[in-house]
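Possible regression after last week's pipeline update?

I re-ran a chain I had predicted before the update to compare outputs. Posting the input and the new output here so someone can diff against the archived version. Not blocking, just want to make sure nothing changed silently.
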Amino acid sequence: MTLTRPQKQLIIGTMDLVLIGCSLWAAVAVRLGAFWPDQVWEDGWPLLLVLPLIGGALFYGVGLYKSVLRSMGRHDVIRIAQASFLLSLVLAAVGFFDFGLFLPRSTPIIFGLLLAVSMIAGRGAARSYYQLLRERGVQKRPVIVYGAGESGIQLVAALNAGREFRPVAFLDDDKGLQGRFISGRRVHAPRDVDYLSKKFAATDVFLALPSVSRARRKEIVHFLSQRPVRVQTIPSMVELAAGFENIDRLREVGVQELLNRDAVDPMSGLFSSVRGRAVLVTGAGGSIGSELCRQILTMEPSRIVLFEISEVALYAIELELREMASELSIELHAVLGSVCDAARLEQVMKTYRVQTVYHAAAYKHVPLVEANPLEGIRNNIFGTRAVAEVAARCKVDRVILVSTDKAVRPTSVMGATKRMAEMVLQHAQARTAETIYCMVRFGNVMGSSGSVIPLFQKQIAAGGPVTVTHPEVIRYFMTIPEAAQLVVQAGSLGRGGDVFLLDMGSPVAILDLARRMIHLSGLEVKDAQSPQGDIEIVFTGLRPGEKLFEELLVSGDVLSTSHPKIMRSLDGPSDLCDLDGILAELETAVVNHDISGALRVLVRTVEGFEQVYPDAMMVDIPDSIATDARAEAKPGRARIENTAALSENASFISVG
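New output (post-update):
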């Protein structure tokens, strides 16, 4: 274990010299049927010394000693066979030209076969002994490998070479493989996973299924999520083929595999709003904005402008994309600025001759916007108005707004501001035909900042508890890349004032999602049925502005588009003509820091924006305000006074 590399090479080389001599003697003995035939060795015994020296030089020359013994594989076996064949040719030449040496013509063939087999066997024995020494005193964790194909075999080989895991069995759907032994492990049916986990005390299942269909993969993950085993997976076939990942680079099962929906495939024909154009992305450092920038770069725009208020976020995304943009010969410009600054927006749009704007800048975290409503109004509504008006003045071709399902009959200030932002764009569309305005509504985006999935992962890693707001809360989910693709494609589909939404499949129960994530981490839920479980689920109650389920439509009417997964909503503002007056009143309230007045405007303008806070939330509100709220306001107006009181002493938080 402490030998140097040259010392190990010397040992293997010495072993080869001995094997060459022994193989030569054995070949002659087998051919002539005698232990020491005098007719060969009486004058030919020096060959037992000379041939090993020739063989050692030959093996060194062909690079036989450059291989690492512990990683010996198929290519090393082929190289040994080739070296043995070359040395057998040397032996044949010696026998042919030395007429004083009696050497049967079949001897070199037997010699080559014996030498190759003995060298391979010797190295295999040495490798086994090396692994035995490495594993002495090391407790390797037993694991089950799901998938007995080529990827599974490679994964087992990689795990055997490591010091952490010990593969104990295969699972495979192929009935023809079940019951057989592969890489020394028995292949079992998937239904045997409970038996195997108990027999071997295995708490981990590794998925070696890089090319399995998406539907089947989800079925397997769902099946395993019902059992207290930790599930990890190797990279996809695309990542392996591209060289981005190695076969032994295990990672947690993607949460998208727990969701009841398939990914939405992009249609390259719908990239016309980007390809060859100058594109501006606001909020370029955010979750959706940064992915939009990544996707847009692959669609070959002429230039892309990253517009972001956060210096840290802008630096990160600019640094990430700089090399890729350079390779594709695409101009990349990082610009600091706020969407509320119309003069800055106009300067940027004119300087870079922007043709398409993707407006992703917004404050989106519901509780923070509830506590800071004026900042949410200023950024989400008036920032959108500034983008719309400047785009019209600069004759931008298209403006696409990233919206949310929380804009439909909102119960939060954030949702109400996003619905108002939609109305602002539709109002702008009614005033111009030169610029096309449209918007895209999303459900929850997996992995975005503030989303529930990273929170659950962090809580599980910390040992719990996992916090769920309500046992009946459900949500729609989509991946960040899907969301970005949809925004780009909707930009090409828009004809003016459109509200686009995605066929997002079935909603997901958050409680069920939490349970599955706990199970896939190899842990058990701690509850009344399993008091000895590992992770407890705690219900914290709905947060201010939060509701049990989200909707994508206000009116419920939709039209199909050329994309099978994208629909066009018929939602529109109830009174476009009065929106200027409404915005002026709202702006006055914001300027005067009149939270109650601003929220009254939202309640009056945004359809469905009504919700009464529970009495428990009125404890810190002065009695006069609470009384006025209950006496004067229609249902839902109490939340205005309540929010105003709660927010008077709140600091204004920038959430980016």
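Follow-up from reviewer: compared with the archived run. The longest helix spans residues 107-135. Marking as no regression found.
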